[in-house]
Specification:
By secondary structure, the protein is α+β, with helices and mostly antiparallel strands. The chain contains 14 helices and ten strands. A six-stranded mixed barrel has the order 2-3-8-5-7-6, surrounded by four helices.
Length: 415
């Protein structure tokens, strides 16, 4: 134990003498550890946010989508199809059709912006888990008569009007791809939990460029029909079962009804995706990304380890006379080996510790920019520190053994 303490003391003293070289040698380890910690923390935070978004929609929800490659064969979903599904499929809580349209929007004399227009009905409004901040939600009269009243999401209202409350009673001129145009009247401002995370992630890069953010509006499906002058085609049909255990069977039953009504049995004209399956797929993707990042970071740490070994070999050469003097005073080869091995481990461990602190700070900055909460994993932190120490152990063996094998007479003669 005394020998270990003495080796540690000598190692710290040696590293302090050449502190600039020590810092530069640790740089590769610092960057590698900081990269792992920050990316894992931000990735896990994004994963938590996305999974929370899925949970808001519900594990009992399935999505039914038409195969657009078959759209010319009548694979669209119509409002009549939705009504048939509501009538014929039991254990449905909501059957929410969503009609999505792209276009441009303009407020007053301001610049035109990209438009995301969502046509919904009452079921769709409820499934969006809205939180109205100003004004009112869409009511029965809006849905029945196809009035040109619209809801605007809070982020859009803030970027367009500065104060979201100022969006109320404003008119927005829109033009859809295809030539249809209309003037919509804003009656409510709110947040929509099932879209919030996606909005945060996609608009984070627009910080300082809010005038480029798209405008998202929600209107009744009947209003979409009035604007386009044609029957509404449903982009996605979201179905929420009364019990999560029934979601798969409810979705499959809805697909069979669509295939029957469009004479497309066995053609794969409709696809059903469960939210639980999407959660599993997303989790698998994030796990794969974490593994890939770990491999890349491991490579950078190994490169840093090679740099440590190179500097330690230089140290051994520069301190040949010191080694000779220690051996002449009674130090054994094991003592010399322990001293240089301790230096290498301390060097990489300090680099790992600094990298850990830098990674935590970087993760907070990135998370603030992306508007998510970073998740710091103690397991990853401990593993990173242990791995950095292991790098020092592995790449410090060769220099330590070289120092230990020196003959004291030859070492004392070295100039």
């Amino acid at each position: 134990m005394n020998k270990l303490k003495e080796s540690m003391r000598l190692a710290f003293a040696s590293l302090r003498i050449n502190y600039m070289r020590t810092l530069l040698t640790m740089l590769g380890i610092i960057v590698g550890i900081a990269s792992v910690i920050s990316i894992v923390a931000v990735g896990q935070g994004a994963q938590e946010a996305m999974l929370g978004n899925f949970e808001e929609i519900g594990a009992s929800t399935v999505l039914v989508l038409p195969d657009f490659s078959l759209s010319e064969k009548g694979a669209e979903i119509s409002l009549a199809d939705v009504q048939a599904i509501r009538r014929e499929v039991a254990n449905i809580r909501y059957a929410a059709p969503l009609s999505y349209h792209l276009g441009s929007a303009k407020v007053g004399t301001g610049p035109s912006r990209t438009l995301n227009l969502y046509g919904i009905d009452n079921d769709g409004f409820n499934m969006l888990t809205p939180n109205m901040q100003y004004g009112r939600s869409l009511g029965p009269l809006d849905y029945q008569d196809g009035l040109t009243n619209a809801l605007i999401d809070a982020y859009t209202a803030t970027t367009v009007f500065g104060d979201p409350s100022q969006a109320l009673e404003q008119d927005i001129n829109i033009e859809l791809y295809g030539g249809s145009s209309a003037r919509l009247h804003i009656v409510g401002v709110g947040t929509f939990d099932s879209l919030e995370v996606i909005t945060n992630l996609t608009t984070g890069s627009l910080k300082g460029k809010e005038d480029m953010a798209p405008i998202s509006l929600f209107i009744p499906l009947e209003s979409v029909a009035r604007i386009t002058g044609s029957e509404v085609n449903i982009s996605i049909l979201a179905i929420m079962a009364e019990d999560p255990a029934l979601s798969e069977s409810v979705g499959n039953r809805a697909v069979k009804i669509l295939e029957r009504r469009h004479n497309s049995e066995g053609q794969g004209a409709y696809r059903m995706r469960s939210m639980s399956g999407m959660v599993d797929q997303f989790t698998s993707t994030m796990t794969l990304m974490a593994a890939f990042i770990s491999v890349v970071a491991s490579i950078s740490l190994i490169v840093g380890g090679i740099g440590v070994m190179n500097i330690m070999l230089v140290n051994v050469t520069e301190r040949t006379r010191e080694i000779g003097i220690r051996k002449a005073l009674g130090a054994t080869p094991a003592d010399i080996e322990l001293q240089f091995l301790s230096e290498a481990i301390i060097l990489t461990s300090l680099g790992g510790l600094i990298g850990l602190g830098l990674g935590l700070l970087l993760a907070k900055v990135l998370a603030m920019y992306l508007k998510i909460r970073p998740l710091f994993s103690p397991t990853w932190s401990v593993a990173a520190l242990l791995f950095s120490a292991a790098i020092g152990l592995v790449f410090g063996i060769a220099p330590a053994k070289k120092a230990a094998r020196m003959h004291p007479i030859d070492a004392l003669r070295y100039e």
